[in-house]
């Protein structure tokens, strides 16, 4: 194992080089001259600030929504047309940015397309996009649910899809949604059971195909959701999935009172996905790796042993060291032996995750820590004893989770990107420890970050880089408490209402972000908080090992802990923690959506309406 102390100069050069290369510029040799380094730092800061402005405006676009209700308008659908009429106000009030929902979407326009069948005297009725919920409601009041003469079950669904694609979608709407409800399939035996009577068993009499219609949807960036009323549409949706090229989220709306909630959920999902893509600078057309998800247990015995190298960072000594840009000590551990599942078991907005096994133990990262009290405040004073040891084969492999970026492209998969993510998580880990030493005595559940490493695997196919963490233990639920720019409280509130997450824990997590801001004097804050709430006895062994005394003490008094992963850090020095660092804009977005709770007040955190305007360098 080799430890390398990055000097402030080499660390800064590395960061600036990365920014330059991301912008397609050549950095050349490391710069040693201080004036030149300051000049380059300014240039890199300006370039990054410009990128952040672009990201913020993309986020705003993602929060501008056009939503089209596509409804079968034949006689059996009367309750659902009325259901849409009655849901519009609730949808608008819940979603649109207001005093009640401060982090909601910026603008929501609604359209309605009612389709019937070829033989119907009124085959189609359209309400163009409007910002006025009343116009929508009036349209639904006047739309009749009427059937035609021929009485075969299939309807002209293709006509409806085509009409939806021809609406005047706003170029400012970064999120576009079609929410389709119908109880009958489209024409063509491909889409329904052969026993169903169909005047056009060979498909659309006008020659339109679902391939072409969904291709058009994809070109327009439309997310398609389906509200299911009867099983007669199941085969149609299966076929649509193939043409759409992705899974179609289906809601059961047989009970019309479910319409509003289903539409709200669709909007939230699409907006959050688009916000995530915006902040990562991923274009809607970005190319994904070729993978399929497989949640099963891998056949470990048949998988090859891979040899690689871990990169890990040591914790900083003080918060001031973090603020002062003292580089973290980087350790390289070679001769690592792992196995990796062939397919990922889960995906997030930027990465896919694989099960893995680490076959060795003894990476020598045991350190003793002790908490002392100074001036009445609990201060965690790290006393390090770093045991250096070569890894040796383990009796039983350790379960690990390996993640890699899911979009292809050179900029998406650089070692620098994995290193930066590791550094951010190491800093978050340290800050959470500091936070826990203050909140533990108040009876709050501790917040822990998983330790993360970068794993470098060299093979004949080239270098593969992944990040590596211990696997969450037991049957735990993954919760996204906040992201780095929008929806923090809203997502949290939704989690509280829909999945029974203890609101007190949400309060603790939000207070942690706020505390990191105040503790660093407004220099940085840890956001994008996501992870698992663990009951007693389900924390991973690594935590128990590294902190035996504390874990035992915690066990007596606490029932819950929060284990987090993949944080982002907003920092006034925008050359750090790229690409998720949105600087002051990100901090502002957090405070726009944050209302201080009880814990914030007990910790003496000051309410922030506007993060400081002070310039960094
Ligand atoms: Zn607060």
From TrEMBL:
Tagged with keyword Iron-sulfur: no
Q: Which residues form the VWFA domain?
A: 66-267
State the protein's name.
Alpha-type protein kinase domain-containing protein
User: InterPro entries, alphabetically?
Assistant: a-kinase_dom (IPR004166), Kinase-like_dom_sf (IPR011009), Thr-specific_kinase-like (IPR052969), VWF_A (IPR002035), vWFA_dom_sf (IPR036465)
Keyword annotations for this protein, in alphabetical order, are: Kinase, Serine/threonine-protein kinase, Transferase
Q: What residue stretches are annotated with the Alpha-type protein kinase domain?
A: 320-608
An example molecular function term from Gene Ontology annotations: ATP binding
The keyword Kinase belongs to this UniProt entry's keyword annotation: yes
């Amino acid at each position: 194992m080799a430890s390398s102390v990055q000097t402030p100069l080499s660390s800064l050069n590395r960061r600036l080089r990365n920014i330059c290369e991301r912008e397609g510029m050549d950095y050349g040799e490391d710069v040693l001259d201080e004036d030149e380094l300051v000049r380059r730092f300014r240039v890199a800061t300006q370039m990054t600030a410009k990128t952040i402005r672009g990201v913020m405006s993309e986020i705003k676009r993602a929060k501008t929504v056009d939503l089209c209700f596509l409804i079968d308008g034949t006689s059996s659908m009367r309750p659902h047309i009325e259901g849409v009429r009655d849901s519009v106000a609730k949808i608008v009030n819940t979603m649109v940015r207001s005093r009640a929902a401060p982090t909601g979407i910026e603008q929501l326009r609604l359209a309605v397309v009612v389709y019937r069948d070829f033989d119907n005297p009124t085959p189609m009725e359209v309400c163009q996009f409007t910002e006025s919920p009343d116009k929508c409601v009036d349209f639904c009041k006047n739309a009749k649910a009427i059937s035609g003469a021929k009485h075969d079950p299939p309807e002209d669904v293709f006509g409806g899809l085509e009409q939806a694609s021809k609406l005047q979608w706003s170029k400012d709407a970064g999120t576009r949604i079609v929410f389709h409800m119908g109880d009958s399939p489209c024409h063509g035996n491909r889409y329904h059971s052969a026993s169903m009577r169909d005047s056009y068993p060979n498909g659309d009499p006008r020659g339109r195909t679902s391939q072409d219609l969904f291709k058009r949807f994809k070109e327009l960036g439309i997310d398609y959701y389906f509200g299911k009323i009867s099983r007669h549409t199941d085969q149609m949706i299966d076929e649509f999935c193939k043409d759409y090229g992705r899974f179609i989220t289906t809601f059961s709306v047989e009970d019309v009172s479910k319409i509003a909630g289903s539409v709200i959920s669709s909007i939230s999902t699409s907006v959050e996905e688009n916000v995530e893509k915006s902040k990562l600078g991923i274009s809607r057309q970005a190319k994904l790796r070729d993978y399929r998800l497989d949640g099963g247990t891998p056949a470990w015995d048949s998988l090859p042993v891979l040899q690689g190298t871990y990169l890990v960072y040591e914790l900083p000594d003080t918060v001031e060291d973090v603020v002062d840009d003292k580089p973290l000590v980087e350790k390289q551990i070679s001769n690592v032996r792992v196995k990796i599942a062939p397919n990922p078991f889960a995906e997030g907005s930027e990465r896919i995750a694989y099960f893995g096994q680490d076959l060795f133990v003894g990476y020598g990262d045991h350190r003793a820590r002790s908490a002392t009290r100074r001036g009445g405040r609990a201060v965690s004073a790290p006393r390090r004893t770093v045991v250096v040891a070569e890894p040796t084969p383990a009796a039983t492999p350790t379960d690990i989770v390996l993640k890699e970026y899911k979009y292809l492209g050179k900029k998406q998969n650089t070692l620098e990107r994995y290193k930066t993510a590791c550094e951010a998580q190491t800093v978050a880990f340290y800050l959470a420890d500091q936070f826990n030493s203050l909140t533990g005595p108040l009876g709050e559940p501790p917040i822990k970050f998983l330790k993360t490493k970068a794993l470098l695997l060299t093979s004949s196919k080239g270098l593969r880089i992944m990040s590596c963490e211990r696997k969450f233990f037991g049957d735990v639920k993954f919760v996204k408490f906040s992201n780095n720019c929008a929806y923090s409280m809203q997502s949290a509130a939704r989690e509280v209402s829909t999945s029974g997450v203890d609101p007190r824990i949400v309060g603790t997590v939000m207070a942690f972000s706020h505390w990191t801001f105040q503790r660093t004097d407004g220099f940085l804050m840890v956001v994008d908080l996501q992870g698992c709430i663990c009951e007693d006895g389900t924390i991973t062994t690594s935590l128990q090992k590294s902190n035996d005394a504390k874990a035992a003490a915690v066990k007596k008094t606490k029932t819950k802990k929060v284990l987090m992963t993949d944080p982002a850090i907003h920092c006034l020095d925008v050359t750090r923690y790229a690409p998720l660092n949105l600087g002051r804009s990100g901090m502002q977005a957090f405070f726009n959506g944050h209302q201080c709770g009880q814990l914030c007040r007990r910790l003496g955190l000051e309410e922030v309406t506007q993060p400081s305007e002070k310039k960094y360098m």
